[in-house]
Amino acid sequence: MSSRPKVVLLRPATRGEPQRDAAPEATPRREGLLVALARALEAGRHGLGWENVADLWSAAYFSWHSEDVDEFGRDARFIETIRPLLEFLYTVWWRVEPAGVENVPAEGPALVVANHSGVLPWDGVMITLALRHEHPARRECRMLVLDMFALLPFLAPTLARSGAVRASQENGERLLRQGELVGVFPEGVKGVGKRYRDRYKLARFGRGGFVRLALRTSAPIVPCAVVGAEEIHPVLAKADWVGRPFGLPYFPITPSFPLLGPLGVVPLPTKWSIDFSDPIPTAGYGPEAAEDPILVNRLSEQVRSVIQRMIDGRLARRRSVWFG
Amino acid sequence: MGRIALTGTASLLGGRLLRRLAETKGPDRLLVVDVAPPPAALAVRHRAVDLTAPAADQRLLDVLREEQVESVLHFAFFTSPRRDTVHTHELESIGTLAVLAAAAAAGVGRVVMRSFTAVYGARGQNPAFLTEDRPLQPDPATAWARDKLEAEQHAASFSRRYPDLKVAVLRFAPLIGPGVHTFYTRILDRRVVPLLMGYDPLVQMLHPDDALGAAEAAVDRPVAGPFNVVPLRPIPLLTALHLAGKIPLPVPHPLAYPAVDLMWAAGVGEAPGRFCDYVRFPFVADGERARRELGFSARHASRDALLAYIGYRHPQARARAAEAPA
Predict the structure, then answer these.
(1) How far apart are the C-alpha atoms of A179 and A243, rounded to whole Å?
(2) Could you tell me which CATH number the domain at B3-175+206-231+285-298 has?
(3) What burial class does residue B297 get, using C-beta atoms within 10 Å of its C-beta: 0-12 exposed, 13-18 middle, 19+ buried?
(4) pTM
(5) Measured between beta carbons, which residues in chain B are less than 8 angstroms from residue A68?
(6) How far off is chain A from B128, nearest CA to CA, in Å?
(7) Interface pTM (ipTM) of the complex?
(8) What is the CATH number of domain A76-232+267-317?
């Protein structure tokens, strides 16, 4: 099998078409940054006032943030702002190769369940992009993120603006009841912070919270396997005591972090694949099945083995970490 | 038909509710139970009762009986934190106890009590929308929230012990809008507004008109239990500040808590340091129950409430915003 680097060109995402239940699509910009700058300079000839500074700052802010967000804090214009960077990562940096995207239902609630890896939640971002660009219905996947990311200064507001939601039963249920597509990583911290030597070995799937979520809302479960993200930050060792005072559950030591400082957060350009398997229907069990721990555990194991099988299949076919 | 008694008519919400009820129900059906008399123009009966006095419940019971009161609207709460925590505690916690005890003893059918969504406590673990069955977990070190929490606990306990007493608790989101003067608006009136670096929680700002609508709906419906009264949509804090034309000053949070505490102790701050939690973590509440049982849904989003406040307080800033092409 030839392992040639493959660049996947993206179809344009929905533009202008408001998402269902999303905030009113970005209100038109009040005025451009340059106009505000010119105004400030004009006013500045008679002494720059507080108002000009505030106006300028506000114009700069609203040139890449919306004035209105949806009820979970998703900001349509912010997503538009960071789109070029994310698309660069998707097409050029990681050359993501999605497969089976059509297994995700075209409408209605569904729960995408994926393996978690890569120290930072880049896998969630790439799953969102794969569904936004490659799915026939251009579905917007709302990722449920770990507390440690959803509460971390700077990262937390960025994630919220780009459509992620803090992982909790209440939030997931609310989104699914609104008919949204929701993505979860049941491995949680155990998955995203695992050591390099444990790569592609799925950790325990929490306590089956995602299955209960799907059962209660009758949402089908779509198992999803991400291959390539394990190698973007190879965690050689963990120095958890360093991170603890800062509220971090782990502190990874990779070949480039913390050795190279800020450069260490640049992920390695591996080749990614994202596989979606056939959906597992849950509607037949009824919402009260969520209280049956044996069934919940059985479904959880079933999803886990499907994902592990997809990963193993990919790994067996993979020749190179960098070129797939 | 019995009278409607109001406490806390000197507050914005209590005062506006008094005026509105004087129009809709007629001044004869109203009774102001407060230390301060209501405006003479309203021609509403007034009985002076100090809820912080030792035998306030006995005095209130006599008043409720003499005036044949059928429902009590209890709005005597402080929105802004106060340095006199002893008096606040006497009024809010012990005063509510007196109101509930007197209402139960006088056979008053219902009590509508004012509360705050901030009583849920701002926590990182909060769901995106707090529902009424969520346990109230405010920071126990904050006297402001502790007194409100105790008042809520008294209300729950009286509802349990006196099934005939229908106690509706309205948990209002922070009020922002024309006429509002609280520590929120005093902070918002500054040109440079400090906030915590790296944190940008969603906040709710409730227009006073919506708050009044919910209070009115609760007066007429025999509902009991807690109800969140919230605006249509929350708004990120930073977006709100930029919309208001403020210069945000990000402060690292390990520095902010002691600095705010120090300012509070020095007498120049607006709130104790623990209040930084409210701009660090979300405490956004869900208004579904009020919509279902109270028939109330807000007409303004947080953004509308904020812009209405800016237009009221800083008309010139509004004019500048209007100048810019929409």
Answers:
(1) 38
(2) 3.40.50.720
(3) middle
(4) 0.89
(5) 233, 235, 239, 301, 303
(6) 6
(7) 0.87
(8) 3.40.1130.10
